[in-house]
Design a protein that fits this description.
Radius of gyration: 16 Å
Order of helices and strands: HHHH
Shape: globular
Structural class: mainly alpha
Number of strands: 0
Distance between the termini: 45 Å
Largest sheet: none
């Protein structure tokens, strides 16, 4: 399924770094969802999760591009952020119907984790 994925073109350390970066960003997003939703009703927490996921889809390519600048010589400094994704693009990622890639599937898993995080309450 992922034989042609660009992740596999990276060297071993490049892959390790990309996985670490992705895990750190995922943990950060889950933490932000928890903090932003604290003390709010479930509907607002879910809306916040969707908005934060939308922002992640929109802005995270720049973070990943900065990582690739460290891996590959000769990449130009540039802004790679595109216009914000449409609601249908976000739904394609969440429904795993977007282009088949580790990146898209990872984003879909993150989106669902952010939504599920809304239902996690801590009793004190």
């Amino acid at each position: 399924m992922y034989q042609e994925d660009s992740f596999l073109t990276l060297g071993a350390w490049g892959r390790v770094g990309l996985v670490i970066l992705s895990l750190c960003l995922a943990m950060l997003m889950l933490w932000v969802v928890r903090i932003a939703g604290r003390g709010r009703g479930i509907a607002l927490r879910i809306l916040l999760a969707f908005l934060l996921f939308w922002a992640f889809l929109w802005l995270s390519p720049q973070i990943y591009y900065l990582y690739y600048l460290m891996l590959f010589d000769g990449l130009p400094w540039q802004n790679v952020v595109q216009p914000p994704p449409s609601p249908s693009e976000v739904l394609k990622v969440l429904s795993f119907t977007d282009e088949i890639s580790l990146s898209n599937h990872g984003k879909g898993v993150l989106g669902w984790a952010m939504i599920l995080c809304c239902f996690w309450t801590v009793r004190r």
